[in-house]
TrEMBL record:
Domain of life: Bacteria
Single GO MF annotation: pyridoxal phosphate binding
Organism name: Pseudoalteromonas amylolytica
Cofactor(s) needed for function: pyridoxal 5'-phosphate
Keywords from the named record: Transferase
Descriptive protein name: Carrier domain-containing protein
Coiled-coil features, chain-numbered ranges: none
Length: 529
């Protein structure tokens, strides 16, 4: 199975993560000298519009201290060096690089290894190959599913990778309604949305507008298609996309399309309001700045500092917040309290923080493929003109629509979520998550997540350590999502658990017991970075 994926899907993964996976990467012959390396840094700065080229550029400058490159910048620079010189750097060795001189040594050492015909190390460009080969949780075929217990190659595993938070993927009422809608509409409305849409769409868009509390929304098949469609659409050469460095990769891909159209892009430090304000100040003269963030960060379950950002941009007339709440929608809702810890109604972060998209200059994007178990996503529109514009995005008119089953399941799911049953489900998820997070912390591991949000990442550390930890969990029958570079900082890999209403207390306790073994057997746990 894995071999098949390696041969068939490598190209796709390359495109998605922007890494070269091909082990046959050859080093160019000859030694690289210091000047070439510094030139490559200048090229990197120009390409990514980073303004950190000091007057006196020399080999002993420190990448983080003198040049203020954060961990993401450094990894991007290493990737740039690899591409420029056609080589593959060992990620474990790259963690010791402090200065250009260290990097030069490592680059030439890597050249030597490749030139001698040795097997190239597990270089940063080979990261995906390493993960697919070594981490049992990647690319599995599921033979059977019973609730959140799965059968994979004859082995029973508990599912902590599903993000069907409300458990609606297993709801009989939804199956029945889907069948009725299929009989009415067929399996798939194969019209472009520019031509025609079944009325299921209108109903769903109206319901979503009410649930979220916005004038209008437009439904697309996926969040990724929204980013790929809307971000280039609003871009001009005088537009800056200011991304949180941990913004979801799909936002970054959308911004790359905007960048290809001549827009500017830059990262600010994760959830760092001071850094954001500094960048906003620098961008005062631009026509438009889009602050691109996750609502709930997909690798940690931590909330964006959305209310503070809304407050901050009151002083920046050119700024808009573009928030991707793929995870928060359906869980977070109005007025979180002791009785309803995630709030009521599941309307997402706009409801949680009482945000008005017009007053607060927010474009809100969320998905239906997690809490609502349906292939669908939506973007809010502040007025009819914005709706008309968003409905001309390339991915809206040139890509296919949502299947009937998903339009139907999303609609019924929203109705359930809006009823008192929805709030009961959310309370149940809270209790399960609290049990899990408390257990993990008692074991002595570090678990990130805002206020017992059911996306919990357990900190591990290096990629080698997370690989070992994932193997132990697999042995104990636990399916999780490894959170590794580029979805997590390179030296801060995590084990991501998602907890749904369909998980059981027994499954939670098993997961905690398995993590206790990880704590004992993985040398770098809880985390080194
Ligand atoms: C924050 C975030 N944005 C976007 C996506 C992608 O969503 P979609 O599958 O709807 O493209 C995910 C998927 O996990 C996500 O976590």
């Amino acid at each position: 199975m894995k071999e098949e994926y390696l041969s068939e899907e490598v190209v796709d993964l390359e495109r998605v993560v922007g890494l070269e996976l091909n082990n046959s990467t050859k080093a160019k012959s000859g030694t690289i000298d210091g000047e070439q390396l510094l030139e490559s840094y200048v090229g990197f700065c120009n390409k990514y519009k980073k303004k950190r080229i000091p007057q006196n550029l020399h080999l002993d400058l420190q990448l983080s201290g003198d040049l203020a490159l954060d961990s993401i910048d450094q990894v991007e620079f290493l990737l740039h060096v690899e591409k420029t010189f056609g080589l593959s750097i060992d990620p474990d060795k790259s963690t010791n690089v402090r200065t250009f001189r260290d990097l030069l040594e490592l680059v030439n050492e890597t050249q030597d290894t490749d030139a001698k015909g040795g097997v190239p190390g597990v270089g940063i460009t080979d990261l995906q190959r390493h993960l697919i080969e070594e981490v049992p949780q990647f690319y599995n075929e599921v033979d059977e599913q019973h609730g959140r217990t799965l059968k994979i190659k004859g082995k029973e595993v508990y599912d902590f990778a599903s993000a069907n938070y409300l458990g609606l993927d297993l709801d009989e009422r939804i199956f029945t309604k889907i069948e009725a809608d299929l009989r009415k509409w067929g399996t798939h409305p194969s019209w472009s949305r520019a031509i025609a849409s079944p009325e299921l769409y209108t109903k769903l868009e109206n319901t979503l507008s009410e649930v979220v509390g916005v004038p209008r929304v437009l439904v697309y098949p996926t969040v990724t298609l929204i980013h790929m469609g809307i971000l280039p659409l609003v871009a001009t050469p005088d537009t800056l996309f200011l991304m949180d460095e941990r913004a979801h990769k799909s936002i970054q891909e959308g911004v790359d399309l905007a960048y290809a159209k001549g827009a500017l892009k830059k990262f600010f430090k994760h959830n760092d309001l001071e850094d954001l304000q500094r960048e906003l100040e620098n961008a005062r003269d631009l026509d438009a700045v889009y602050i691109c963030i996750d609502g709930v960060y997909s690798m940690t379950g931590v909330d964006a500092k959305l209310p503070e950002m809304v407050e901050m941009i009151r002083d920046y007339p050119n700024a808009t917040i573009y928030v991707d709440d793929a995870h928060g929608f359906g869980l977070w809702g109005s007025n979180p309290s002791e009785e309803n810890p995630y709030g009521t109604g599941g309307g997402g972060l706009l409801r949680k923080y009482n945000i008005d998209v017009n007053r607060d200059k927010v474009i809100y994007v969320a998905g239906l493929s997690k809490a609502f178990s349906s292939l669908g996503a939506f973007v809010t529109c502040r007025n009819d003109a914005e709706l008309e514009m968003f409905a001309t995005a390339a991915t809206f008119i040139n890509s296919g629509p949502c299947p009937t089953a998903s339009l139907s399941s999303a609609q019924t799911g929203l109705e359930i979520s809006q009823s008192s049953e929805g709030d009961e489900l959310r309370k149940h998820i809270f209790e399960l998550t609290k049990r899990f997070v408390t257990g993990v912390r008692e074991v002595g591991l570090v678990a990130e997540s805002s206020d017992f949000y059911p996306l919990v990442s357990v900190e591990i550390g290096t990629i080698a350590a997370v690989t070992e930890a994932a193997k132990i969990l697999w042995e104990k029958g636990i399916l999780i999502t490894p959170a590794v570079y580029p979805n997590a900082p390179i030296k801060r890999s995590m084990l991501r658990f998602t907890i749904t209403a369909a998980n059981t207390v027994e499954e939670i306790d098993n997961a905690i017991n398995a993590l206790e073994i990880v704590r004992d057997l993985v040398p770098s746990a809880p985390y080194y970075y």
